[in-house]
Amino acid sequence: MRKVVILGSTGSIGVSTLSVLAEHPQQYQVLALTAACQTDKLFAQCMQFQPRYAAMVDIDAAYQLKQLLQQAGSKTEVLAGAEALCQLASDSEADIVMAAIVGAAGLLPTLAAVEQGKTVLLANKEALVMSGELFIKKVQQHQAILLPIDSEHNAIFQCLPAALQQHSYSQSIASYGISKLLLTGSGGPFLTTPLAEFEQLTPSQAVAHPNWSMGAKISVDSATMMNKGLEFIEARWLFNCQPDDIEVVIHPQSIIHSMVQYSDGSVLAQLGQPDMRTPIAHALAFPNRMSSPVPPLSFKQMRDFTFSEPEPERYPNLYLAIAACQYGQGATTALNAANEIAVAAFLQQKIRFTDIHRVNAACLEQFAQTKVCTLEQILQLDQSARHNAEQYIRKHC
Ligand code: NAD
Ligand code: MG
């Protein structure tokens, strides 16, 4: 019986994780569930899975949850505040920690799990974008097992030689005969929208992804392709490679989830439904396999497979992220922070869709050369970049 902690259980990835775990009650036990503030949803999850602990960042919401659980006769112990998330992520009984908080807020609890040498299933890409080098060093130092949940990185991981899967992060991919990692992306909902319409695009249009059902922030990131940019940076750290080793390919059908090209000319791809329960089941069972609720892919009904290059005018945020990856850790931390502020402002209809790139570009220009090494410096830069982005929005948008 492996004990699982889910950070961000009420979100899209959290719910998909619970749906996979529900199929395998003999192998996995839910030890803890956490959320920011959605009391009703977390209450329902606690009633179904009866975890030992539940935690909410919002103190009032935690108090409400405690009352509800007590009234329902549940034995789940409720914790409150951001610190409680780190405590649960590093609980001595936890075997697996699913890191599925959205944004920079996921960094500290995910690192807490890494520092206890847990098996960490990483969906929270922003944590790695902010702190890649430091994060991977901690993984090595504490012998944590890091398994990618992001579908592209999970696909690449599945296409790697077994030896590299076991000894990630130390040897270069070239030493295993790999010449390129091919990151695929659908191009989002605006793949064919005329560029002249971009200024008027609304949040509801941006979150309506053609293939994937996801949280609001990552849906907007998919529309700008900043998501692929963050994934580019994520791949650079996860697979210990250089920006030149990674190429982004648009594949609107979202059936090929990414590919690995070898120096002998072979290309290995992982295919599947656009459903996160496949990478989640893969990582939970690794190195074995187990069933998931995802229907099998039917090649009889398969439509065309098409590929193209992402246009720089359509997806300027993708190219900002690639540039940030080349600058280094300070640039990626600042860009991630600016993007979180810009996307939140766009979702609140305070700025236009096209302003997201303007905010991000201004912030990257300001902090591109900033050097950060320690966690304190990273967190400080994250705050400065947020402040800078907010100021830019007030003055220019
Ligand atoms: P979501 O918005 O649906 O859920 C986010 C979860 O994090 C919720 O449980 C929420 O309560 C919690 N949360 C939010 N703010 C928090 C805070 N300040 N402190 C603690 N908890 C907080 O997001 P999602 O779509 O499930 O994405 C989660 C992460 O997984 C993101 O980093 C995203 O990029 C990544 N990811 C998601 C998908 C997907 O299909 N949804 C695919 C690949 C990667
Ligand atoms: Mg992805």
TrEMBL record:
<dbReference type="GO" id="GO:0030145">
    <property type="term" value="F:manganese ion binding"/>
</dbReference>
<feature type="domain" description="DXP reductoisomerase C-terminal">
    <location>
        <begin position="271"/>
        <end position="387"/>
    </location>
</feature>
<keyword id="KW-0479">Metal-binding</keyword>
<comment type="similarity">
    <text>Belongs to the DXR family.</text>
</comment>
<feature type="binding site">
    <location>
        <position position="152"/>
    </location>
    <ligand>
        <name>Mn(2+)</name>
    </ligand>
</feature>
<dbReference type="Pfam" id="PF08436">
    <property type="entry name" value="DXP_redisom_C"/>
</dbReference>
<feature type="binding site">
    <location>
        <position position="125"/>
    </location>
    <ligand>
        <name>1-deoxy-D-xylulose 5-phosphate</name>
    </ligand>
</feature>
<feature type="binding site">
    <location>
        <position position="215"/>
    </location>
    <ligand>
        <name>NADPH</name>
    </ligand>
</feature>
<feature type="binding site">
    <location>
        <position position="227"/>
    </location>
    <ligand>
        <name>1-deoxy-D-xylulose 5-phosphate</name>
    </ligand>
</feature>
<feature type="binding site">
    <location>
        <position position="126"/>
    </location>
    <ligand>
        <name>NADPH</name>
    </ligand>
</feature>
<keyword id="KW-0413">Isomerase</keyword>
<feature type="binding site">
    <location>
        <position position="152"/>
    </location>
    <ligand>
        <name>1-deoxy-D-xylulose 5-phosphate</name>
    </ligand>
</feature>
<feature type="binding site">
    <location>
        <position position="36"/>
    </location>
    <ligand>
        <name>NADPH</name>
    </ligand>
</feature>
<dbReference type="InterPro" id="IPR013644">
    <property type="entry name" value="DXP_reductoisomerase_C"/>
</dbReference>
<keyword id="KW-0560">Oxidoreductase</keyword>
<feature type="domain" description="1-deoxy-D-xylulose 5-phosphate reductoisomerase N-terminal">
    <location>
        <begin position="4"/>
        <end position="132"/>
    </location>
</feature>
<comment type="function">
    <text>Catalyzes the NADPH-dependent rearrangement and reduction of 1-deoxy-D-xylulose-5-phosphate (DXP) to 2-C-methyl-D-erythritol 4-phosphate (MEP).</text>
</comment>
<feature type="binding site">
    <location>
        <position position="209"/>
    </location>
    <ligand>
        <name>1-deoxy-D-xylulose 5-phosphate</name>
    </ligand>
</feature>
<comment type="pathway">
    <text>Isoprenoid biosynthesis; isopentenyl diphosphate biosynthesis via DXP pathway; isopentenyl diphosphate from 1-deoxy-D-xylulose 5-phosphate: step 1/6.</text>
</comment>
<feature type="binding site">
    <location>
        <position position="231"/>
    </location>
    <ligand>
        <name>1-deoxy-D-xylulose 5-phosphate</name>
    </ligand>
</feature>
<keyword id="KW-0460">Magnesium</keyword>
<feature type="binding site">
    <location>
        <position position="12"/>
    </location>
    <ligand>
        <name>NADPH</name>
    </ligand>
</feature>
<dbReference type="InterPro" id="IPR013512">
    <property type="entry name" value="DXP_reductoisomerase_N"/>
</dbReference>
<feature type="binding site">
    <location>
        <position position="228"/>
    </location>
    <ligand>
        <name>1-deoxy-D-xylulose 5-phosphate</name>
    </ligand>
</feature>
<feature type="binding site">
    <location>
        <position position="13"/>
    </location>
    <ligand>
        <name>NADPH</name>
    </ligand>
</feature>
<feature type="binding site">
    <location>
        <position position="150"/>
    </location>
    <ligand>
        <name>Mn(2+)</name>
    </ligand>
</feature>
<keyword id="KW-0521">NADP</keyword>
<dbReference type="GO" id="GO:0051484">
    <property type="term" value="P:isopentenyl diphosphate biosynthetic process, methylerythritol 4-phosphate pathway involved in terpenoid biosynthetic process"/>
</dbReference>
<dbReference type="GO" id="GO:0030604">
    <property type="term" value="F:1-deoxy-D-xylulose-5-phosphate reductoisomerase activity"/>
</dbReference>
<keyword id="KW-0414">Isoprene biosynthesis</keyword>
<feature type="domain" description="1-deoxy-D-xylulose 5-phosphate reductoisomerase C-terminal">
    <location>
        <begin position="146"/>
        <end position="239"/>
    </location>
</feature>
<feature type="binding site">
    <location>
        <position position="186"/>
    </location>
    <ligand>
        <name>1-deoxy-D-xylulose 5-phosphate</name>
    </ligand>
</feature>
<feature type="binding site">
    <location>
        <position position="10"/>
    </location>
    <ligand>
        <name>NADPH</name>
    </ligand>
</feature>
<protein>
    <recommendedName>
        <fullName>1-deoxy-D-xylulose 5-phosphate reductoisomerase</fullName>
        <ecNumber>1.1.1.267</ecNumber>
    </recommendedName>
</protein>
<dbReference type="InterPro" id="IPR036291">
    <property type="entry name" value="NAD(P)-bd_dom_sf"/>
</dbReference>
<feature type="binding site">
    <location>
        <position position="11"/>
    </location>
    <ligand>
        <name>NADPH</name>
    </ligand>
</feature>
<dbReference type="InterPro" id="IPR026877">
    <property type="entry name" value="DXPR_C"/>
</dbReference>
<dbReference type="GO" id="GO:0070402">
    <property type="term" value="F:NADPH binding"/>
</dbReference>
<dbReference type="InterPro" id="IPR003821">
    <property type="entry name" value="DXP_reductoisomerase"/>
</dbReference>
<feature type="binding site">
    <location>
        <position position="222"/>
    </location>
    <ligand>
        <name>1-deoxy-D-xylulose 5-phosphate</name>
    </ligand>
</feature>
<dbReference type="Pfam" id="PF02670">
    <property type="entry name" value="DXP_reductoisom"/>
</dbReference>
<dbReference type="Pfam" id="PF13288">
    <property type="entry name" value="DXPR_C"/>
</dbReference>
